[in-house]
Amino acid sequence: MQVLNSAAFLDCLSKPRVKSYSNFFYPGVMQPSESDLVYMYQWNSEVSEILWKLISIIEITMRNKVHKELSRLYFSSPKEIVANGVYQNNFANSKVPTSTIGDAGSCNWYHAINFSGEALVNITKRTHYKKPNNKYYTKPYVVTPDDVISGLTFGFWRLIFKNLGSAGVSYQAIISDIFVHSPFYKQTVTQSLDFKVDSRISMIHSFRNRISHHEPVWKLKDMKEEKITPILGNPNNVNVLKAKPSNKIEVFEHLTDYYKMMLEYLLWLDKDVARSFKGSWWNDRFFYICSDKGVNSFLYSYSAEYELTKTHLKRNVNQILKKGNMRMITDKSRKAIILPLK
């Protein structure tokens, strides 16, 4: 987006938000230029956009892999659903038998598992509706498993293995079978590996929440190891792998490390989908903008030369590409964007 009035744009953001960019990216500078702050904000937005694309694919792939595996395991199992006329706090104690919906590739496995707490609430809110008396009743039509699965949030899937464990399910074999392209496929899942998988999806979920709430993705905490290490006086028993970034270069390093970890998680689930994303221009663009050259491309893209004619492009294409700045090419009523990737 080409911002026409930097002062007005910054005024639309909260002062603490703008100040955080100023303090971190321009330390010691009393008053960074408004245009620089605007384009650093837009830089964060583009980093977030690419991460969001990757995280969305991870979420969809993960939930469908889990759904398919649990459907296979629980298709023939007896199932229970929350009865009619039940308050939310009584869901767990008010279940009645229900039939199997779907087939072995997609069924209501969630009614075969003794979920409780938030997991049960989330499932029931997909299959029931609440009347003004605050009691829940089954919907007057068949809610398909696909409808339920697509309506459950990433928060549900982030905790799926823990919630299976709380429901009495030995989920380690499920982890082994779901991550079909991981080093631990069909292997024994130890406590250490369980912790690693949970740490990875927790990190991805954390990024998702930051992006969805429009928080800066560059404002990162310490990067923790994905393994439990007995540490005297540390109740979390997790070592710090990298201290939180203190400058722009460290931000780039952290972001690219997290990005690679997300791609690896997707590869564990489906190598072809992961390779497709890695081969996309989004992947090249991400590594480009997580560099000094990439950041500078934001700062200098929207100059007087931002909009060029097709004739100018033909005459100066090598120079334009060498500068590595974003450019809009116009040809009568048609427009196109040059977006640097490397």
Task: Give the helices and strands, then pairings.
Layout lengths: L5 H6 L3 H11 L8 H41 L4 E4 L12 E4 L3 E2 L2 E2 L9 H11 E3 L5 E3 L6 H7 L2 H5 L1 H7 L5 H7 L12 H22 L10 E2 L15 E3 L5 H22 L1 H8 L2 H9 L2 H10 L5 E3 H14 L3 E5 L2 E5 L4
Helix pairs in contact: 3-9, 3-10, 3-12, 9-10, 10-11
Short characterization:
The chain is mainly alpha-helical and 342 residues long. The protein contains 14 helices and eleven strands. It has a three-stranded mixed sheet with strand order 9-10-11, covered by helices on one side.
What do these coordinates show?
The chain is mainly alpha-helical. Helix content is 53%, strand content 11%. A hairpin with a 5-residue loop joins strand 5 (128-130) and strand 6. The relative contact order is 0.10. The mean pLDDT is 91.
Entry keywords:
mainly alpha, single chain, 53% helix, elongated, 342 residues, three-stranded mixed β-sheet
Could you report the average pLDDT, rounded to the nearest whole number? Answer: 91
Largest sheet: 3 strands, mixed
Q: What's the gyration radius in Å?
A: 25 Å
Amount of helix: 40-55%
Low-confidence stretches: none
How many separate helices? 14
Strand order in space, largest sheet: 9-10-11
Distance, first to last CA: 20 Å
Shape: elongated
Total beta strands: 11
Order of helices and strands: HHHEEEEHEEHHHHHEEHHHHEHEE
